[in-house]
Design a protein that fits this description.
about 270 residues, alpha/beta, Glutaredoxin, 7-stranded mixed sheet, 7 strands, Thioredoxin domain-containing protein, PXL2A/B/C, Thioredoxin-like_sf
Length: about 270
């Protein structure tokens, strides 16, 4: 059953009709990336399908998918930030940081972007887009906070190889902040959701972003590949923008994030 699911999920991602001519896409991404990086089209499959062989995988993923949401955050809400008091994440140098202290909940402004994990090639692409938009975020008075699943050592690799500003990047190895915000996690979200097909419209950007990528940055706990990300824009404790990624590669549009920031500047 697991083998059938794996085969079906890979085919649905690589060979889905919405992806166009799948063989051409695979060749294109190899031509674009292979001279610069250990990333190839095969890595797309690896990124989506890596998982423990242990029978504990099913129990773990089901337990995570059925986890309790501490704070269902939606656009326009004012959040009780005490829900996050017990969550500790880590800077790229390994220093612990309380999630609730990342920005001033009375007057601070923050864009909190969650990646899947530090080895996800599509998250490298999204991180590159966030990096390029950072001067605009800064001009609007918003602090960029980017969080990924995995240890600080892998966050540091992304920071150095992409590159990405280390002071904007944090690691959440236990996915506690993800759980608190109710971000999606599970097999179907990772492997079977058609929202991932949009990846094939951005292969040139992925190719450019992953030139420094290598397999060493993939999660040690491969169950982490089932985690999805999202973006939240805060003004104090008020949520100006909230979007959970539906599936792998289904990232927020930078223009939408900027729109939520700029609306506060113009108001």
């Amino acid at each position: 059953m697991e083998g059938m699911l794996l085969k079906t999920s890979v085919n649905s991602f690589i060979c889905h009709p919405q992806a166009g001519q799948q063989r051409k896409n695979r060749c294109d991404v190899n031509k674009q990336v292979a001279p610069h990086s250990s990333f190839t089209s095969t890595t797309i499959t690896h990124s989506l399908t890596s998982r423990p062989a242990s029978s504990q995988f099913n129990r773990c993923s089901m337990r995570r998918a059925a986890g309790v949401v501490h704070a269902a955050v939606q656009t326009g809400e004012t959040v009780d930030m005490s829900a996050f008091d017990g969550i500790t994440i880590y800077a790229t140098d390994g220093q612990p940081v309380k999630f609730s202290e990342l920005w001033d909940h009375r007057n601070g402004k923050a864009i909190v972007a969650f990646l899947r994990h530090f080895g996800c090639p599509f998250c490298w692409e999204f991180a590159a887009a966030l990096r390029e938009a950072k001067p605009k975020f800064d001009a609007a008075g918003f602090k960029l906070i980017t969080i990924g699943v995995g240890p600080s050592s892998k966050a540091q690799v992304l920071s150095e190889k992409l590159p990405f500003p280390a002071d904007c990047l944090y690691a959440d190895p236990d996915r506690k902040a993800y759980d608190a915000l109710g971000l999606y996690h599970g097999v179907a979200r990772t492997w079977l959701n058609p929202a991932s097909m949009q990846i094939f419209t951005r292969l040139d950007k992925v190719a450019d972003a992953v030139k420094g990528w290598n397999r060493d940055v993939m999660p040690d706990n491969t169950a982490a590949t089932l985690q999805q990300g999202g973006v939240y824009v805060f003004e104090g404790s008020k949520v100006l923008y909230a979007r959970k990624d539906e599936s792998t590669g289904d990232h927020s549009k930078i223009d939408d994030i900027l729109g939520s920031c700029c609306s506060t500047v113009m108001a």
